[in-house]
Amino acid sequence: EPEVTQTPSHQVTQMGQEVILRCVPISNHLYFYWYRQILGQKVEFLVSFYNNEISEKSEIFDDQFSVERPDGSNFTLKIRSTKLEDSAMYFCASSRPSIGNTIYFGEGSWLTVV
Amino acid sequence: AQSVTQPDIHITVSEGASLELRCNYSYGATPYLFWYVQSPGQGLQLLLKYFSGDTLVQGIKGFEAEFKRSQSSFNLRKPSVHWSDAAEYFCAVGASGAGSYQLTFGKGTKLSVIP
């Protein structure tokens, strides 16, 4: 079964540093997403991406966040200047652009900001 | 805005016993409803989903869920739990906007299984 893959699985970074989390969505999917889960809290929507642009974003997704599809296979989330409160599990997901289609999640990238 | 409530933070059941995990949602239109499972160190795996039609939906691993519009509920059930079902379970409601899905998750219910 095709799957969404994410790298790295775990990253530790110093506060103020830039971080890039990478994802390879399922190949025939056209919608891509980032969600995050702060330890002990809900999984929260960050952003959705379609046709090389952001289609929706939450209020969490402020100017320090950006997404990009640099080539035909990767989808990245960049955090420009990390803060302690950015420590979380970040999930990439993808889906086909049709009603009724499942959103498939990757295994997550655990980010620890120290 | 949509919201999901999972009233049980932690449930413990004996292996072989039946299971019901509760989920209540709030959404103004017809909801798209999902149950995901997360094992320790793993990602989110879809168990089942409801979009329309039959209100009793079957999923993987022997799970089923019933959509009850009058109660705004989408409870997950399994007739006989296995030790491997120990995990965290998330209910989610999906809002379709501009073609994409913005899922709103509940806080999750952690399931422990006693041998």
Characterization of this structure:
The complex is a heterodimer of chains A (114) and B (115). Helix content of chain A is 0%, strand content 50%. In chain A, strands 2, 4, 5, 6, 9, 10 and 11 form a 7-stranded mixed sheet that branches. With 114 residues, chain A is an all-beta fold. The N and C termini of chain A lie far apart (37 Å). The mean pLDDT of chain A is 93. Chain A has no helices and 11 strands. In chain B, strands 2, 5, 6, 10, 11 and 12 form a 6-stranded mixed sheet that branches. Helix content of chain B is 0%, strand content 57%. Chain B is an all-beta fold and 115 residues long. Chain B contains no helices and 12 strands. Classes of the chains: A mainly beta (114), B mainly beta (115). Chain A binds chain B through residues 4, 31, 33, 35, 41-45, 48, 50, 55-56, 58, 91, 95, 97, 99-100, 102-108, and chain B through 34, 36, 41-46, 49, 51, 90, 92, 94, 96-108.
Terminal Cα separation of chain A, in Å?
37 Å
Structural class of chain A: mainly beta
What integer is the average pLDDT of chain B? 91
Largest interface by Cβ-Cβ < 8 Å:
A-B, 26 and 26 residues
Total number of β-strand segments of chain B?
12
The 3D shape of chain A can be described as: globular
Number of helices of chain B: 0
Beta-strand percentage range of chain A:
over 45%
What spatial form of chain B do the alpha-carbon principal axes imply? globular
